[in-house]
Design goal:
CATH class of the largest domain: Alpha Beta
Number of helices: 12
Order of helices and strands: HHHHEHEHEHEEHEHEHEHEEHEE
Number of domains: 3
CATH topology of the largest domain: Rossmann fold
Helix content: 40-55%
Distance between the termini: 86 Å
Strand order of the largest sheet: 2-1-3-4-5-11
Radius of gyration: 25 Å
Number of strands: 12
Strand content: 5-15%
């Protein structure tokens, strides 16, 4: 015969506590001592007890789940930051549910609604650009939310991120300082992506301030893949006025650009300098190693977890948390040949 499933009262008896204490312990409420929590968890393990999530959420008016809506799951950078977010939430007794919208802001509203219908206590979003309908829905339903990877200087939306525009300006200024005057940029697709748009704007602004133009034919928007980076670099190398410096919107595009130079026998950085953005692990082992902007992905995920949990708990927290990024100069950049 099948053994009857353990009940909450069975856990309470084995742990020597009341039913309410078991409920509070399994919900990781701070009022429960560490010793009591250990007894309850051990009793639950021995009995094979699994709390009924829906019933627990109904009693507590909390599901102890957070939803995160990503532009894509096919991106190592988002994966690292999301892993840090998940780890920090898990340490606080929360589960993370993931969904993606494939850079379609209309679809993002639909995806976020699905997460809310599943009872998430809060929503973490990527970037600062979202459909007005999404913000309206979150406000109407009083769902705490947080923007990440970008900053909202207006103060309307809570956010954890960094200034993409300023970081890109720093890259351009560095290249000008070492003597470059002929520039190109392999940008991410800017539609529906405020991070890509801010990085392109930062490069334009920095170059304009130094009286350097960025020709329209020297700006190529491309999805974040090695193949697209190679194709974009192929077009730039074939242009009548070949740039001496190519700024890429992320490391994947930059790696593709460097690979295309290798394929054509064009020396990096002697003939052309290339920069990336994000400082993926592979950036340091590329030959030559990639000059790039280091984004603190793990710190971003951890800070996002703390801020969304503070918002859910009703405690005061910063509306804007700005993280520092660093320019990492490596072997793909050098002064242009005279």
């Amino acid at each position: 015969m099948t053994k009857p499933a353990a009940k909450l009262i069975d856990v309470a008896r084995l742990a020597g506590v009341c039913n309410a204490t078991v409920s509070r312990a399994l919900a990781r409420e701070p009022s429960v001592s560490a010793a009591t929590l250990q007894r309850v968890e051990e009793a639950a393990r021995q009995l094979g007890y699994v709390p009924h999530g829906a019933a627990s959420a109904l009693r507590a008016r909390r599901s102890r789940t957070i939803g995160a809506v990503l532009p894509t799951l096919d991106n190592l950078l988002y994966a690292k930051a999301t892993h840090a977010l998940q780890k920090a939430l898990d340490d606080s007794g929360y589960l993370l549910l993931l969904a993606c919208h494939e850079f379609d802001l209309t679809n993002e509203v639909k995806v976020a609604r699905s997460l809310i219908e599943r009872g998430v206590d809060g929503i973490v979003l990527i970037g600062a650009e979202h459909d007005d309908a999404l913000f309206a829905m979150l406000a109407d339903l009083e769902i705490p939310y947080l923007l990440t990877w970008s900053l909202d200087r207006s103060g309307r939306h809570p956010c954890v991120g960094f200034d993409n525009r300023v970081a890109a300006m720093r890259v351009a200024d560095y290249l000008v300082d070492i003597g470059h005057r002929e520039f190109a940029m392999i940008s991410g697709v800017v539609a529906g992506n405020d991070r890509a748009r801010a990085r392109l704007a930062g490069v334009r602004e920095a170059l304009t301030a130094r009286d350097i133009g960025l020709a329209p034919q020297h700006v190529i928007e491309a999805p974040y893949t090695l193949a697209e980076g190679r194709a974009a670099m192929h077009s730039l190398l074939a242009s009548a006025t070949r740039p001496t410096a190519v700024i890429c919107a992320n490391d994947v595009l930059a790696m593709g650009a460097v690979l295309e130079c290798h394929a054509q026998g064009i020396a990096v950085p002697d003939a052309v300098s290339v920069t990336g953005f994000d400082d993926m692990e592979a950036a340091s082992i590329l030959v030559p190693a990639l000059t790039t902007v280091r984004v603190p992905m793990r710190e971003l995920g951890y800070a996002a977890a703390q801020q969304i949990l503070a918002s859910i708990g009703g405690t005061d927290s910063a509306r804007v948390t700005e993280l520092a990024v660093d320019l990492i100069v490596r072997g793909t950049t050098a002064s242009p040949r005279r």
